[in-house]
Amino acid sequence: MISRVRLLPLNLSDAEIARFHSLVSRRSNHLCWEWKNMPGACGYGRFMVKRGKRQYLLMAHRVAFFLHWKIDPEDWVVCHECDNRMCCNPHCLFVGTTMDNVQDKIRKGRQSLGIPPSNTILTFEIAEEIRRICREEKPVPKYRELAMRFGVRESTVESVISNRRWSKPLS
Protein backbone atom coordinates (compact mmCIF):
# COMPACT_ATOMS: atom_id res chain seq x y z
CA MET A 1 0.00 0.00 0.00
CA ILE A 2 1.20 3.49 -0.78
CA SER A 3 1.54 5.50 2.41
CA ARG A 4 -0.11 8.90 2.53
CA VAL A 5 2.32 11.76 2.05
CA ARG A 6 1.60 15.31 3.10
CA LEU A 7 1.30 17.15 -0.20
CA LEU A 8 1.59 20.72 1.04
CA PRO A 9 5.17 20.36 2.40
CA LEU A 10 6.28 18.82 -0.92
CA ASN A 11 5.63 22.22 -2.52
CA LEU A 12 5.09 20.92 -6.05
CA SER A 13 6.96 22.97 -8.63
CA ASP A 14 5.30 24.51 -11.68
CA ALA A 15 7.09 21.92 -13.83
CA GLU A 16 5.75 19.05 -11.69
CA ILE A 17 2.23 20.48 -11.82
CA ALA A 18 2.47 20.83 -15.61
CA ARG A 19 3.78 17.25 -15.86
CA PHE A 20 0.88 16.05 -13.69
CA HIS A 21 -1.70 17.83 -15.87
CA SER A 22 -0.10 16.37 -19.02
CA LEU A 23 -0.82 12.89 -17.63
CA VAL A 24 -4.54 13.57 -17.15
CA SER A 25 -7.03 13.28 -20.01
CA ARG A 26 -9.28 16.24 -19.16
CA ARG A 27 -12.88 16.31 -20.33
CA SER A 28 -15.99 18.09 -19.11
CA ASN A 29 -16.53 18.38 -15.37
CA HIS A 30 -19.27 15.74 -15.33
CA LEU A 31 -17.07 13.06 -16.98
CA CYS A 32 -14.09 11.16 -15.61
CA TRP A 33 -10.63 12.56 -16.32
CA GLU A 34 -8.57 9.43 -16.90
CA TRP A 35 -5.01 9.08 -15.63
CA LYS A 36 -2.91 8.26 -18.74
CA ASN A 37 -0.04 6.38 -17.06
CA MET A 38 -0.13 2.79 -15.90
CA PRO A 39 -1.93 2.20 -12.62
CA GLY A 40 -0.21 0.83 -9.56
CA ALA A 41 -0.94 -2.63 -8.21
CA CYS A 42 -3.91 -1.22 -6.29
CA GLY A 43 -5.47 0.11 -9.52
CA TYR A 44 -4.97 3.82 -8.79
CA GLY A 45 -2.91 6.24 -10.84
CA ARG A 46 0.57 7.01 -9.51
CA PHE A 47 2.60 10.21 -9.79
CA MET A 48 6.26 10.36 -8.82
CA VAL A 49 8.12 13.40 -7.54
CA LYS A 50 11.74 13.62 -6.44
CA ARG A 51 13.20 15.58 -3.58
CA GLY A 52 16.98 15.20 -3.57
CA LYS A 53 17.73 11.48 -3.57
CA ARG A 54 14.28 10.61 -2.26
CA GLN A 55 11.35 9.70 -4.50
CA TYR A 56 7.72 10.05 -3.48
CA LEU A 57 5.09 7.93 -5.18
CA LEU A 58 1.81 9.81 -4.86
CA MET A 59 -1.69 8.65 -5.65
CA ALA A 60 -2.79 10.70 -8.66
CA HIS A 61 -6.35 11.33 -7.50
CA ARG A 62 -5.04 12.76 -4.20
CA VAL A 63 -2.75 15.12 -6.12
CA ALA A 64 -5.69 16.15 -8.36
CA PHE A 65 -7.82 16.90 -5.30
CA PHE A 66 -5.00 18.94 -3.75
CA LEU A 67 -4.22 20.94 -6.90
CA HIS A 68 -7.83 21.83 -7.61
CA TRP A 69 -9.28 22.46 -4.17
CA LYS A 70 -6.02 23.73 -2.57
CA ILE A 71 -6.68 21.44 0.40
CA ASP A 72 -4.13 18.85 1.53
CA PRO A 73 -6.19 15.70 2.23
CA GLU A 74 -3.57 14.68 4.85
CA ASP A 75 -5.07 11.81 6.88
CA TRP A 76 -8.38 11.79 5.03
CA VAL A 77 -9.36 9.25 2.39
CA VAL A 78 -9.99 10.76 -1.05
CA CYS A 79 -13.00 8.87 -2.40
CA HIS A 80 -14.31 8.59 -5.96
CA GLU A 81 -17.97 9.43 -6.45
CA CYS A 82 -17.60 7.84 -9.91
CA ASP A 83 -15.95 4.61 -8.56
CA ASN A 84 -13.25 4.89 -11.24
CA ARG A 85 -9.85 4.50 -9.56
CA MET A 86 -8.07 6.09 -12.53
CA CYS A 87 -10.25 9.22 -12.45
CA CYS A 88 -8.52 12.49 -11.53
CA ASN A 89 -11.51 14.80 -12.04
CA PRO A 90 -11.69 16.82 -8.80
CA HIS A 91 -15.46 17.08 -9.27
CA CYS A 92 -15.67 13.28 -8.87
CA LEU A 93 -13.61 13.31 -5.66
CA PHE A 94 -14.56 13.91 -2.05
CA VAL A 95 -12.76 13.47 1.25
CA GLY A 96 -13.98 11.34 4.08
CA THR A 97 -12.98 8.77 6.62
CA THR A 98 -12.32 5.12 5.90
CA MET A 99 -15.80 4.42 7.29
CA ASP A 100 -17.31 6.97 4.88
CA ASN A 101 -15.59 5.13 2.02
CA VAL A 102 -16.89 1.75 3.22
CA GLN A 103 -20.43 3.11 3.61
CA ASP A 104 -20.22 4.62 0.12
CA LYS A 105 -19.16 1.22 -1.23
CA ILE A 106 -22.06 -0.54 0.55
CA ARG A 107 -24.58 2.08 -0.60
CA LYS A 108 -23.46 1.56 -4.21
CA GLY A 109 -23.59 -2.24 -3.96
CA ARG A 110 -19.84 -2.80 -4.33
CA GLN A 111 -19.44 -4.59 -0.98
CA SER A 112 -20.06 -8.34 -0.95
CA LEU A 113 -21.82 -8.34 2.44
CA GLY A 114 -20.83 -11.95 3.06
CA ILE A 115 -22.02 -13.41 -0.23
CA PRO A 116 -19.14 -15.09 -2.10
CA PRO A 117 -18.43 -14.19 -5.74
CA SER A 118 -19.50 -16.80 -8.29
CA ASN A 119 -15.92 -17.76 -9.23
CA THR A 120 -14.90 -18.72 -5.71
CA ILE A 121 -13.78 -22.24 -4.79
CA LEU A 122 -14.84 -22.11 -1.18
CA THR A 123 -18.45 -22.05 0.01
CA PHE A 124 -19.87 -21.48 3.48
CA GLU A 125 -20.64 -25.20 3.64
CA ILE A 126 -17.02 -26.15 2.86
CA ALA A 127 -15.77 -23.60 5.40
CA GLU A 128 -18.01 -25.22 8.03
CA GLU A 129 -16.66 -28.63 7.01
CA ILE A 130 -13.08 -27.40 7.51
CA ARG A 131 -14.02 -26.13 10.98
CA ARG A 132 -15.78 -29.42 11.80
CA ILE A 133 -12.70 -31.42 10.77
CA CYS A 134 -10.51 -29.26 13.01
CA ARG A 135 -12.89 -29.73 15.94
CA GLU A 136 -13.44 -33.47 15.55
CA GLU A 137 -10.45 -35.12 13.85
CA LYS A 138 -7.55 -36.13 16.08
CA PRO A 139 -4.81 -35.33 15.43
CA VAL A 140 -5.96 -32.09 13.85
CA PRO A 141 -4.80 -32.01 10.20
CA LYS A 142 -2.20 -29.43 9.24
CA TYR A 143 -3.33 -26.38 7.31
CA ARG A 144 -1.32 -27.61 4.32
CA GLU A 145 -3.23 -30.92 4.28
CA LEU A 146 -6.59 -29.17 4.50
CA ALA A 147 -5.59 -26.69 1.80
CA MET A 148 -4.64 -29.53 -0.55
CA ARG A 149 -7.81 -31.47 0.30
CA PHE A 150 -10.10 -28.52 -0.48
CA GLY A 151 -8.05 -26.89 -3.28
CA VAL A 152 -7.38 -23.61 -1.48
CA ARG A 153 -4.37 -21.83 0.00
CA GLU A 154 -3.09 -22.44 3.53
CA SER A 155 -3.82 -18.81 4.38
CA THR A 156 -7.46 -19.39 3.38
CA VAL A 157 -7.68 -22.37 5.73
CA GLU A 158 -6.17 -20.30 8.53
CA SER A 159 -8.69 -17.48 7.88
CA VAL A 160 -11.57 -19.97 7.95
CA ILE A 161 -10.45 -21.61 11.19
CA SER A 162 -9.89 -18.25 12.91
CA ASN A 163 -13.33 -17.05 11.65
CA ARG A 164 -11.79 -14.02 9.92
CA ARG A 165 -13.32 -15.22 6.64
CA TRP A 166 -16.21 -17.42 5.69
CA SER A 167 -18.13 -17.09 8.90
CA LYS A 168 -21.91 -17.14 8.72
CA PRO A 169 -23.44 -15.32 5.75
CA LEU A 170 -25.37 -12.14 6.47
CA SER A 171 -29.14 -12.43 6.08
The helix/strand order is HEEEEHEEHHHH
Summarize the amount of helix as a percent range.
25-40%
Unreliable residue stretches: none
Give the overall silhouette. Answer: elongated
Number of helical elements: 6
Radius of gyration: 22 Å
Assembly of the depicted chains: single chain
- Tally the beta strands: 6
Distance between the first and last residues' Cα: 32 Å
**Global mean pLDDT:** 85
Q: Output the strand order for the largest sheet.
A: 1-2
Q: Which sheet architecture does the biggest sheet show?
A: 2 strands, antiparallel
Structural class label = alpha+beta
- Content of β-strand: 5-15%
Q: What does this molecule look like?
A:
This protein is an alpha+beta fold and 171 residues long. It contains 6 helices and 6 strands; from the N terminus they run H-E-E-E-E-H-E-E-H-H-H-H. The strands form 3 sheets. It has a two-stranded antiparallel ribbon with strand order 1-2. Strand 3 (46-51) and strand 4 form a beta hairpin. The longest helix is centred in the C-terminal third of the chain and has 13 residues, at 124-136. The protein is elongated, with a radius of gyration of 22 Å. The mean pLDDT is 85.
Q: Brief overview, please?
A:
With 171 residues, the protein is an alpha+beta fold. It is built from 6 helices and 6 strands, in the order H-E-E-E-E-H-E-E-H-H-H-H.
